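FAQ: What does a multi-protein file look like?

Like this. Sequence, then tokens, then the next protein.
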Amino acid sequence: MTTTYRYLFADLVTNEIIAELPLTGVSFTQQLNQAGSLQGHLLLSGVDADALNVETATIPGRNAIYVDRDGTLVWGGVLWGRDYNSTSQTITLSAREFISYFERRRINSTAVFTATDQLNIAKSLVETAQLQTNGDIGVTYNTLGQTTSGVLVNRVYYSYELKTVFQAVQDLSRQTDGFDFDIDVYYESGSIIKAFNTYYPRSGTVYSTSDSSAVVFSMPGNIVEYVYPEDGSIAANKIYSLGAGSNEGKLISIATDSTKLTDGWALLEDQANYSDITDQTVLNELALGRVTALSYPPTTVKVIVPAYEAPVFGSYELGDDARLIITDSRFPNTYDEIYRIVGLSIQPGEDGPERVTITLTTGTD
């Protein structure tokens, strides 16, 4: 079965399609609660660049790019880089998902939220950024996710800190009772929609043994290759979270995984800075969430699977649980655990099979 990829370039503000360009060597990623990336090449040799509108369609910071796979949008983001090599006559393009735009937007007016649902705060931050002159890139809100979580928090974002909108949303999402978020792209009535969605308590499908459609990756089986790293250098069983204030008046929260220490682990300390957090409860939640994620050396497994083998690409998504079963020299007695999909990297495979590298982790921090 042949899979057809198309690469559409649009004006970032108006979303008007400017060109469809024949990219090669494309790879793109999706990341849970952060911006995925795309890279591709455009060979100008033998191409009528003017007729294809190449120059106007590929202006960094001005244009957007969408990836269409067999009539379905599977990626969308801001074009940030354009590099031309005169020897190869090739333009290399780099882009990041639309949430990266809000890394370039600052909270420049003090915003105070009292006993406000965390999802409403996230929406308000994005919405306020788009209300500023020339700041609207056409992102809509919660067409797929939830609008409320029932988790009420107090937050103050001071204008003098100029915190990025993205960082504010991500920090909010990382407390122990936090949420997932993304900007999803899709077709609707002939138009392209980009929607900021929040999901509580999480996005994706929870694994169930009774679900016949549950995602399973196995070796032997559908896994072509896997990488299983373990990094103790970033583990921490005691976290000092620093909030607003200075000197003796600085807000601080300490979270410890006492179970690890009781089990005989050495004390491993780290700190996290949240200078805009004025609420002790929120700071406590952030500290607890971080120590939970880091108290055991984080394991992030990457498995490579063909896009056309069950489960086929498109049947799983970021946030889904997946069962990982491995029997080989590393795990002769079989490794069988439930992980969560937090990253996807796709190679369309114009010169070979279409493959997907799936990043699995037991935590999302």
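And here is the next protein:
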Amino acid sequence: MLSETKMINDEYPLTPVPQARLRHWFSVAAISALVSLSLPTFLTGIEVGQSLSFDQTLAAIYLGSLILTLVGGVSGTLGVKYRLTSYALIQASFGGVGARIVNLAFGASLVGWFGVNVDLFSDACIQLLGNESPHSAQILLIEICAGAIMTISTLLGFLWINRLSMLFAPVLLVVTAFLMNLWIRGDSDLAYAKISSELSFSNAVSAVVGAAIIGAVILPDITRYVTQSYGGWMVSIVCYLVIAPPVMLIAAGAMSHSEAKELLDLMMISGLGLGAALIVILGSWVLNSLNLYSAVLSIRASVPVTTTSKATVGLGLLGICAATLDITSWFIDFLIYLSIGFIPVAAIMLVHFQSRPSTTQRIKGLVLTAKTNNRALLIWAMSMVMAMLELEFNLSVSGVLALDLLVFSALTYAMVRPR
């Protein structure tokens, strides 16, 4: 295992990545591709597909993906330009206490994702054990062991996660092919026959955005390693526009033409057999290492006195606790609230960097302001309140909550931002 000092220096939580550590954008895109091929992506497609017709599902998935591509492209380019983590960039946008609040919110959300993946991992393990009625103590033991393995993997650092993703991405491509075959065998007219839950088009788009909005905002965490100036856009396009939409559509189509009720059952019906459980286990492991890695960066940026190993272990334990709450049972609500919470953060950060040349100089010299940007915090709060009102009263200007939220937060911050 790497020493504590070497891990901190290797990951550069508060300093620019040196030239010697840069790599081609395609290598970094492999990590984002794994996120797009991940199990939560399949789950999102299934939930949206079971609630809408095919035309609506297609439109919701691609509209949400376009929003993510825009956010990820601009934020990823900031990572390439400044070679800093998203959390250092957020500090320049929100300043002082504001940045700490945002970063801690990111960390908490990533811990939630950690819980989702530990849940998937434990379900797959139970399936492999052939136990249809597992005891709660058995589930808890599996979740603790799974969380521990994922935490240890994260302690090994970014390069280890990169190697795992490069190995596992082709496996998930094969899974996608199996699901596509199941969809094609089911019905050639591509019309979804089962509508199993109530989900409006607006909420479906928000769910698609929420499934990846954290990844789009924190894309600088990995694009800071990219050599090419256009690499941020390429990574975002590959992740959110080329790979994710077809994966969601295929998962939705396969589920609509099967008798499966869960993702793991669907994968087994598709012809993968018990290998499906192994795929879920490995996929959850790799993705959770990336989630925990990003969560640790947020804590290290907000609380620099915290060591990398302590933050990793602490957040891993919190993620295990989240898994015990059965977080996957309210998956769609989780995604919608993620979009409400973090679309405004993305809009504020992007407007801030497009309009503040003085910020560029501060970031290059790492003289990040300690003064809280109260206007950014105010717009963030106002945007979330506006979104909650739209959600509560089923109102929307554009017809899509996520789009309303993005435009409102960007325009209002552009009007009141510090000059």
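Q: Is there any per-entry metadata?
A: Some entries carry free-text notes. For the entry above: Confidence is low (pLDDT under 50) at residues 1-10, 188-195, 358-367.
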